[in-house]
């Protein structure tokens, strides 16, 4: 956008320094450009009202029109609330309730006056009510040109300073008056023509104050398309730059790998594993830096692929690191790979937070000299003292736990030539998201489980069936199996009292199974204690493992065949799927039992039903995306990337695909964007990078 859009918001008519400061603090609106992109999050549609008699509890947010007939403050002190009655044109009543801001609402809400209320209806004893609805007084005389009225996001604080949605709409009117003539087209005529896009000026006008339904839809499509187009364009350009500029070490010798295949592999690779190894090998021999994402459902066998890749590096005189997000997982990788490495005469080490100082010194020394070929560890590997003779390969397991910044620290450990990168994730990322987040990574998928695996049987049981579930546990243990019991604990870093569920659970499990040994692992344990408990379970000294989600990631005990998840309704869908993946790793039939109380929300029910119905990680990820929205799915570290202004990845996959194809085509025809027909695009990119948008948030 041109300089005009960098004008400070305080200079807009009706704003001024005081309001400007509030807008900055509360909504990050600093400039005209920020405000014009503060799109309405919904619209008041004068044609879409429900009658009270049409309401039912499953409805999301609805609009009802009626007259306030009576209001009353009920209760005292903290329990105080305001109740008002809204009567619609049929004479049916809807109760409105406020628990907060009671005094203020009492003052502002006008009796015997017509309002539009917007909120979620709930039913109690056949009567409907709405808590904290949004309100708009229905003034007869007020007629806007727009058939849809914009409703803008505000905050409590803004409202307290009388900056509500209507005030923002007023500001927007002022802004559009001065700003629309300044708007420059940011897409090329060719794209506008091909995709039948509305021009940018009309799009801004109609997204805020739609003239007709058609124009509103066209405006929305245009702005979503543009947003996604520029994300994709940027990713592709990065990829092109990377491909062109970044040389990679060539790894074309494989003697040890051949020996490993011939003499030490205890199983055959699955077809999918073979395909992925080929894809990786092609990268490693191409002379370019590999930058690859390996997706594979839990239990699909990513570790062996990682090891094979590390072997190839070692065969060509390069060192490799395998970084895991937790100590437990690093240990497990280490134990598994150490056995192979020893037999092949390869020096493989482990470095985690709990590695002793004396051992560290040796490790650091051996890494610097090149004597140590492979190292497995946690983020302790990122410390500056860890230096390599020739780091040639970085593998990051379960990458969503690491921030982008953290990861790039690894790459920089080879100042001479950037190492090859393999990122492995067991969180199947829906295609739409993968395209947006990892447009610059090549993607490999292991979509096949090793032969002989039995599909995990998943059931949902209510807490009242606990005795039967426990009997089942006993039967399984008698068959020689082991059992996980997981308790919810969302925040690992939180206070000890949050462990109450787990501790209570642990005690009751010990009481219920006096004849068996019970381990317990959680995030507050010291690493060595955690390790000790884990090892007891691995060695079958204990039959039951009580744990929090620390066992969610990667842990591999093939003899464990039962996963019980307590308060399963409190877990996200992807997390449930990850936990379930801890069983079903051996040849035995495995089970996942989801325990809940009777009271379940609609979303909880959907999550449980999905788990019972399918084992397919990609299907689960798609449903999770729909339920939660993309920001949540990836964890906070990456949500920055997904701060989309108008597009919605859970709904706009088709637009994303078109925008992606368009970006690809534009760059294919004009890699440097220097042709005259792409002048608009070039100018827009320049203004984007001149602005504060921090594109480096994407790795
Ligand atoms: P994940 O992809 O979840 O990290 P792992 O690499 O831990 O899965 O593999 C899960 C289990 O499957 C391990 O015990 C591993 O040895 C085993 N495994 C991997 N590949 C195969 C295969 N091709 N055939 C049989 N077992 C395999
Ligand atoms: Mg794994």
- Give the DSSP E fraction (strand runs of 2 or more residues): 15-25%
Detail the poorly predicted runs.
490-494, 633-641, 692-699
Number of strands: 22
**Radius of gyration in whole Å, from Cα?**
29 Å
Task: Specify the number of helices.
Answer: 25
Assembly type of the shown chains?
single chain
Ligands in the model, by name, code or SMILES, are:
adenosine-5'-diphosphate, magnesium ion
What is the residue-averaged pLDDT? 86
CATH superfamily of the largest domain: P-loop containing nucleotide triphosphate hydrolases
Form type? globular
Structural class: alpha/beta
Spatial arrangement of strands, main beta sheet: 6-7-4-3-2-5-8
User: What is the CATH-assigned architecture of the largest domain?
Assistant: 3-Layer(aba) Sandwich
CATH topology of the largest domain: Rossmann fold
Major sheet: size, sense and barrel closure? 7 strands, mixed
Outline the secondary-structure elements.
Layout: H1 16-27, H2 32-36, E1 42-45, E2 62-74, E3 81-87, E4 93-98, H3 102-108, E5 114-119, E6 121-124, E7 127-131, E8 134-137, E9 148-151, H4 156-160, H5 165-179, H6 189-194, H7 200-208, H8 213-245, H9 255-264, H10 271-284, E10 291-296, H11 302-315, E11 319-323, H12 327-343, E12 348-351, H13 357-369, E13 374-377, E14 391-397, H14 404-411, E15 420-425, H15 431-437, E16 442-446, E17 457-462, H16 466-478, E18 482-486, H17 500-512, E19 518-521, H18 527-538, E20 544-547, E21 560-565, H19 573-580, E22 591-596, H20 602-613, H21 617-628, H22 630-633, H23 636-639, H24 653-669, H25 679-690
Parallel strand pairs: 4-7, 10-15, 10-16, 11-13, 11-14, 12-13, 14-15, 17-22, 18-20, 18-21, 19-20, 21-22
Antiparallel strand pairs: 1-9, 2-3, 2-5, 3-4, 5-8, 6-7
The structure holds adenosine-5'-diphosphate (ADP) and magnesium ion (MG).
Organism: Pontibacter mucosus
GO biological process, one term: DNA recombination
Keywords: ATP-binding, DNA damage, DNA recombination, DNA repair, DNA-binding, Helicase, Hydrolase, Isomerase, Nucleotide-binding
